Amino acid sequence: MLPALTFSSFTYLWVIVGHQFICQVAQDRLSESAAAAVKELLPAYAENDLSTLCSWADRIKFRYRWSSELHYIDTPDDLCTYNYNRDCKDEGGVRGRCVSGAITNYTNQLLTYGSSADEPQYNLTEALLFLSHLMGDIHQSDWSDQVVKWEKCSNNDVTCPDIYASESIKAACNWAYKDVKNNTVLEDDYFLSRLPIVNLRLAESAVRLAATLNRIFK
To answer: Is the per-residue pLDDT at 147 higher than 50?
Structure first.
C-alpha cells in the first residue's frame, strides 16, 4: 500500500466532482447505439443522466461489502509497477478481485447486452454503473491532441484496464507521493501543484469510458 496521507480536498474532488465529470463527458461522447443502450439500462429516475449515478458504486459499498476491494489495487510498497498476476487479488488471495479485474468483468457482462436469452444472466444496470465508476477509480493518482490515443486499446480489446492501472501507479509514484512522508498533512501548495495531473487523468478517464461503451454497444 502507498503512504497514509491526509487527502481531504483531493479525495472530495475525485470521489464526488471527478466521477460526475467523467460520466457527464463520457455520455456526451457516446455513439448513437451506445447512447440508446445506456438510456435503456439507466433507471427511470436518473432521467438519462449517467453522471447522477456515477458515485453509486461508492454508496453501495456498505451494502455490497464484497465490492469494496474492487475499487483499488494493492501494489507492493517498494515497487512503482503493476503486474496483474501479482497484484490483482483480494486479501484472501482470490485472483481478479481488484479494480482492473472488475473492469474486465463488468465489460464482459455488458457485452451480453442484446442477447436472445429469456432471462438475463447479469444485472446489466449495475454492471454499467460499476464500470462507469471504476473507470474513474483506475485513473485516480498521463490534451486535445491525445484524445485519439486515449480511445485506443491494444490488440483491439474492448477495454485495457491493466494499461490504465500501470499509468496510475506510475503517476502516484512520480506525483502523488513524491517528496511526502507518512502521516503528512498536505497543504494547498501540494494540491495546486498536482492539479494538472488530476485534470489530465479525469480527461483520460472520460474519453476511455466513452470509447469502451462505444465498443461494447457498437
So the answer is: no
- Cα 65 to Cα 70, 71, 99, 104, distances in angstroms: 10, 12, 15, 20
Q: Is residue 76 part of a domain?
A: yes
At 77, which CATH number? Answer: 1.10.575.10
pTM of the model: 0.76
Residue among 2, 13, 31, 60 nearest 182 (CA): 2
Query: Does any domain span residue 1?
Result: no
Per-residue pLDDT, averaged over 12-24, amounts to 80
Q: Which domain holds residue 202?
A: 8-216
Q: How many domains is the chain built from? A: 1
Write the DSSP symbol of residue 173. I
Number of Cβ within a 10 Å radius of residue 191: 15
What H or E segment, with its residue span, contains residue 36? helix 32-41
